[in-house]
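Illustration: Glutamate-1-semialdehyde 2,1-aminomutase.
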Amino acid sequence: MIHTKSEEVYHEALQHIVGGVNSPSRSYKAVGGGAPVVMAKGEGPYFWDVDGNRYIDYLAGYGPIITGFGHPHIAKAIKLAAETGVLFGTPTVHEVKFAKMLKEAIPSLDKVRFTNSGTEAVMTTVRVARAYTGRTKIIKFEGCYHGHFDQVLVAAGSGPATLGSPDSAGVPVTVATEVITVPYNDTEQFQMAMDKWGEDVAAILIEPIVGNFGMVMPKPGFLEYVHKVAKEFGALTIYDEVITAFRFHYGAAQDLLGLTPDLTAMGKIIGGGLPIGAYGGRKEIMDTVAPLGPAYQAGTMAGNPASMLAGIACLEVLQTPGVYEEMDRLGAMLEKGILDAAEKHGITITVNRIKGALTVYFTSEKVENYKQAEQSDGEMFAKFFKLMLSKGINLAPSKYEAWFLTTEHKEEDILETIDAVNYAFSKLK
Ligand code: PLP
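Result:
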């Protein structure tokens, strides 16, 4: 496969855009470097790069593109917005309709507010939790990603009772010391952190199903325990459902798990591919937000008609009977194909799959927390990634990311992918 034009564009990009990319995860740094493939157009589950190579895509724009590229229903909605006004700076009927749709699908949302990104949505839930409780500390979990605002770019201290330290240059130590990071799925360490800091903790911020060190389910009882202890200490629970909302079924992960957080942050899928975030939760907590209450949050572009109409259209597609069952069925087929290929070629892997999303880890261990994901073989993944790319299969360039199916992937795409996996594993031996 020739990538001459991608390389040219990337080298030009390096001169004008920092690092040549507009989000660090798009660079190939984690898979040994080189020019990332530059995409030109997409259709359904496929996209084509500037050299004309076709790929079956499992990146899905890091999650949002659940209905594939250029879905006609969403395209029509975006066209309508383009023709009738993409921004008014006034309320619109679209945002009301969309808020109602989200509330109907996710019962914990008494009220919602739209933002422009997942980062903004999570950032505001943290502020609202602090405003509501009058406390400042946050507990989060190792390996969960919540966007790029200061409070979540905080590395774990040396133990569960230790305050965090900045995980990015530019994050003040004073901010990091408001955050405690504990291992996911570890009730004991969570309890230790709460015993030490619980009275000062405004909220527990968590991905209820993890998507950011691969797809990882909470162990049975883990989230229930988090809720129980949070309640004992008067701390709020915030679910970051930026990846998981509408990923596994028509609703959020919380409904699949039978749990009710105080606040929920969303993004990605709900924008139908356009920039979006949203947060919501219990009425009395949400009512602390301006203009009703003292917690400030705003946005020139928030709730803009283009994102609202695209989001509504995307959810309408996801209401089609059977779409989630089909993603689950194809996900199971893909998982089996990958595991069979690994056995055939003597490659050691662990696959975590949750319906239409899966992660392949090059490890013999179970992956239930970040440390276990970290221990998987990154060099093997990097080789695997490039071999798959050479066969026209696009994965995220990181061992920590998921493969996402869309409503547009078909059985023939899965079979082609399994053939590519067999090829890649035969070369990896
Ligand atoms: N929360 C989670 C769970 C995410 O995966 C992400 C992005 O990947 C974010 C928040 C941040 O969302 P955005 O990139 O839209 O700011």
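Reading the tokens back as a structure: The chain has 14 helices and 16 strands.
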